[in-house]
Amino acid sequence: MYRTNKYPENWKCSFTIFIKKADGKGVRPISLGSCVCKVFETLVKNKLQYWVEKKKNIIPKSQSGFRKGQNTVDNLVNLTLHVEQSFNDIKDLLAASIIAPGKIVIEVKNVKIKTSGTVRFLGILFDYKLTLKSMNIIKFLRRTWWGADANTLLILYKSFVHYANFVYFPTNKQLVQKLERIQYAALRLSLGYRNSTPTNVILAESKMLTIEDRTIYLCHCHLYTILSNRNLIVNETIRSLKKK
């Protein structure tokens, strides 16, 4: 196929099975294709990935998603380091003019950018003081799917709470205790335990660590990943901060 540039006609066809949804209001199509075609697609994907990343170096370092050995947490860590360093260096912008309006107006292609105290970046809410109090994890409890089994609820809980938690994890002990209480409440709901169930029993049955211990563990794992891959953009940020 590489030489002839011809694609088998059979690979263009697939067998589609329609499965009814649980509510009975629709169907879910499942397409079955050639296994050899899937293998060939993987070979082409690996070849293109090597050509783009290693040989031609086309993809910028700031692109972390969908790349081997990288994830979106790298960009979150990089942004946090830059913002925190700006606070430490006391960098700001002073604008003064007798004809200037009461507040600065920022426009991009004649579109006014509204001022906001928070900004969402890759699923994390950053506030203007980098306290990250907008990360209201208790909202997760209101969206729990009642009737789901314990394992499903635990997986759902982990996906909400453990994603990049070492980026926004507070240093204030009172806030840490609030997060711990929220975790215990979520685990009780997931496992169906009463409020009187001891916390050590809840952690043992759910095979979970405390939020603080889990955050430290995930942070160590991510640091190991950063140190083992010098091509990450986070490494450049860390080296530039060391020079200062």
UniProtKB/TrEMBL annotation:
UniProt superkingdom: Eukaryota
Name listed for the protein in its UniProt record: Uncharacterized protein
Source organism of the structure: Trichomalopsis sarcophagae
